[in-house]
Amino acid sequence: MNILSLFIILIIAFIGYFVGRSRANSIRNLSGKRLTSISHYYGYYVAIWSLVPAAIVFLLILIFNDYFVTNYVLSGYEDLENSSRDLIMAQIENTRNGIQLANSLDSNIIAAVKKLNYIESQYRISGFIVVLSISAYLFVHASIKISPSLDSRKIVERVFLILFFSCSLIAILTTVGIVISLLFETLKFFNSVPILDFLFGLNWSPQRAFVSDVSELVPEDIAGAFGALPLFAGTFLIAFVAMCIAIPVGLLSAIYMAEYASSNIRNIAKPLIEILAGIPTVVYGFFAALTVAPFVRNSGMSLGLEVSSESALAAGFVMGIMIIPFVSSLSDDVLNSVPRNLREGSYAMGSTKSETIIRVLLPAALPGIIGSFLLAISRAIGETMIVVMAAGLAAKLTANPLDAATTITTQIVVILIGDQEFDSPKTQAAFALGLTLFIVTLLLNYIALRVVKKYSERYE
Amino acid sequence: MSFVNLNDNNLQKRLSREFRFKVYCIMAMTFALGFVLFLFTSIFSTGYSAFYKTMIPIEISLSSVVSDSNSFALMTNEEINDLSIYSLSKKNIYNLFPNITDRKEKKEILKIFSYEFEDEIKNFLKDNKENINDINIIYLTASDDIDQLHKGNFPRDIPEKRRRLSDLQLSFYDELILENKIETEFNFPFFTRGDSREPELAGIGGALAGSFFTIIVVLILSLPFGLLAAIYLQEFAPQNKFTDFIEININNLAAVPSIVFGLLGLGILLNTFGMPRSTALVGGVTLSLMTLPTIIIATRAALRAVPPSIREAALAVGATRMQAVMHHVVPVAMPGSLTGAIIGIAQALGETAPLLLIGMVAFVVDVPSTPVDPSASLPVQIYLWAESAERGFVEKTSATIMMLLGLLIILNLTAVIIRRKFETKW
Questions:
Q1: Which helix (H) or strand (E) covers residue B259, if one does?
Q2: Are B300 and B263 in contact (CB under 8 A)?
Q3: Which backbone phi and psi does B184 adopt, to 5 degrees?
Q4: Nearest CB to A278; choose among B15, B236, B346
Q5: Which of A62, A103, A243, A275 stands the most exposed, by the fewest C-beta atoms within 10 Å?
Q6: Which residues neighbour B289 within 8 Å (Cβ) at sequence distance 6 or greater?
Q7: Cα→Cα distances A25→A30, A38, A49, B71, Å
Q8: What's the complex ipTM?
């Protein structure tokens, strides 16, 4: 079972196209009847028959291969639990690859290695034969079935349509995958930590619950260590600082571009501002940690203030810069879509440009602008690299932007980076945080899109 | 009598308010643009020096290793690797400062060179087998601290205890400068070598290869799936609840924070499907799921912009819907969807957070040669080096950022050019 068989069936399908086409042509010439479809559809017809079923079988074998191999090799160990079966299997494979030390071998394992080698070669050969014979049989079958009355075009188009449709299902599969992977671990987490303790607990110190032997943990230990409120507060604090930068700068830039700038300046300035959105966040993180944080700290010191070297202010400031284009682009679009007659009505009454903007355009465009703010907030909450590199790691409940604060995303990364053992409440906590993040950003986006949509309908 | 009295106090106030407002707007604009400029200059000014490295030439006599220097020509590379020339190289390095005799002080001479000097000498032997003389001048890489000192990034005026170079080493450096024995050359290994704990030896070759494989995987997966999905949704999908559901899903996915995709990769790809950790393959699959919505949305917009007349003309001459779409609508919409695809790829290239969760942060010295080797990627390399304490990594990080930004600019320019050149205006 390998790439070679896939390659061979691809070649069969490729040949099938030409065989089908020329067969259709010769049938037409011999019988003198008109074909129902153009001849190359008969080619596609043969190619699809020789490719698709064989490829599906190939995939099925690929997926279930491991399962059957493991079952066969461990046929004496049925009564064991899954985890210890996995362990034995890993041992067997390590022995085969020569990673396991020679003196630790026991005879069972050696026998199992032989069994494994045997069954794998058996499966490889039989899978190869099965796939190829399916492909070859259907190739012949489809070539014989070609006749002037066969409506190959309809069949081929149907197959293409199904292919297109299944591609669009990937979006749903991804969402399902996200929800399952998050929900699964989160539910396990809530088994050991009550959900209310997680949402409203004040103490976040997952390291305490991360000991080598999970069974040694006292349940109270776990429950008390996962209070995520300080993380929510930190996330909110940093996002708040970011919005304090992004809202005024973004909105005023949008107003300038929409109302004041000539089209030349606008054509240059708009892409330049959007560069800010295209810069990878890790670059901002580096910049925040290397340049902005020391600057904030030094200027705070010179004013006699106590400033942490990982202050929420520095991370929030840089994040605010990153978010400017999200506010400005959308606000710009919204301002541009305010109908001309509102603007001109205001000018006709003798108001200045700024009066028109503040008293007429902004109120008219308010829902759309608020929508853009909401989208920006959801960006700020989900942003990871800036806070991982520039914000603090210790969870502390604080409202002081000069203090270090940590965020949901930072903690996810801190917990899951590098090697981690699974099935500990600590790693599950990261998934619970991820689910919280997912739900919050989803809600924000949903509301924002609704608001923007409602608004755009108003002026249509 | 005019309607407007210019001396009216109230009007003056209003006009100056107007002026102030405009100034605020311009200030906001300049602030945003100024920041772009500031960011770029600050990164470029710290990063450009990483493209040069400091070398110190030393004389090496090899007479004690082999009887005749011509015999190198007959040796294979493996044989040269097996030579033990460490103590010989040390002796030759000590000859740089003949008046230093103390053993401790001699050790300090060694420290002004990168610790892989033996390998560098062997590489020289391998490259110049035929032209080995009794005495050869070999350029050895200076250690990170000397390198930084030479580039002016190392403050000399702090007390000896608090800096990494001792007074003695500084005097070595000054002596070498006087003898004109410190040279800089283009840091070519920076682009080919893998990661290292030593800044002077670390390169972005591994990260470049990792990013390359990741992007290839993203291209292979997200481009065809994205295109076909968009074609289905825009051209064939019936107007029903299920289609709406798919659409809502795609729009939501586009707004999901990237780190959630990392959790998906960790939970599903690594733990359920058992795919290999830390590899470009898993990174690529994770990032494809992330870029898919971008590509679908852009392609749909491009398809929507194709005027109905094209479709109808094809249908009118007897094409089926599939033929009309595949032969006439899709080719016209191609530039638009390619632009979207390139922007999606650029996003994937700069993405870091999901890769951290699927283990692409491992310290990888070897340059990966397949997508299933453990590897890093450019943004992850930036993260890793930014977290390192050594001073030399600051310029390396900035230089890596320059490379990454350069690649992103090239990608985005390509997108703009494709759009300008091939997009049809109706």
A1: helix B258-264
A2: no
A3: -115, 145
A4: B346
A5: A103
A6: A170, A174, A177, B222, B253, B261, B264
A7: 9, 9, 19, 72
A8: 0.89
- List of chain B residues whose C-beta atoms are within 8 Å of the C-beta of residue A353: 18, 21-22
In a domain, residue B4? The reply is: no
Closest C-alpha to B115, from B202, B204, B207: B202
Q: Is residue B195 part of a domain?
A: no
What pTM does this model have? 0.88
Per-residue pLDDT of chain B in tens (426 residues, 90 and over written 9): 445 555 667 888 889 999 999 999 999 999 999 999 999 999 999 888 888 888 888 888 776 666 666 677 777 778 777 777 787 788 888 888 887 778 888 888 888 888 888 888 888 888 877 777 777 788 888 888 888 888 887 777 778 777 778 888 888 888 888 888 888 889 888 898 888 888 888 889 999 999 999 999 999 999 999 999 999 999 999 988 998 889 888 988 888 999 999 999 998 888 888 788 888 999 999 999 999 999 999 999 999 999 999 999 999 999 999 999 999 999 999 988 999 999 999 999 999 999 999 888 878 888 888 888 888 899 999 999 998 878 788 889 999 999 999 999 999 999 889 888 887 766
Q: Are B156 and B107 within one domain?
A: yes
With CA atoms as reference, the chain A residue closest to B386 would be: A286
The span from the CA of B192 to the CA of A9, in Å, is 39
Compute the nearest-CA separation of B401 from chain A (Å).
Answer: 7
* Structure tokens that stand for A458 in this block: 């108003």
- Inter-chain contact B42–A445, Cβ cutoff 8 Å? no
List helix spans (H) across A307-360. 312-336, 340-348, 353-355
Tell me, yes or no, if B44 comes closer than 8 A to chain A by beta carbon: no
Tokens matching residue B134: 């009794």
The dihedrals phi and psi of B164, each to the nearest 5 degrees, come to -80, -15
Q: How far is CA A10 from the centre of its chain?
A: 31
Distance from CA of A186 to the nearest CA of B (A): 11
**Position of tokens 């030094």?**
A298
Tell me, yes or no, whether B177 and B265 share the same domain.
no
- DSSP-derived secondary structure for A52-70: HHHHHHHHHHHHHHHHHHH
Residue type, A307: V
In a domain, B198, yes or no: no
- Find where tokens 């930072």 sit: A410
Nearest alpha-carbon partner for A140 in A38, A12, A5 = A12
Domains, in order of start, for chain A: 3-150 (no CATH), 223-458 (1.10.3720.10)
pLDDT tens digits, one per residue of A131-145: 899 999 999 999 888
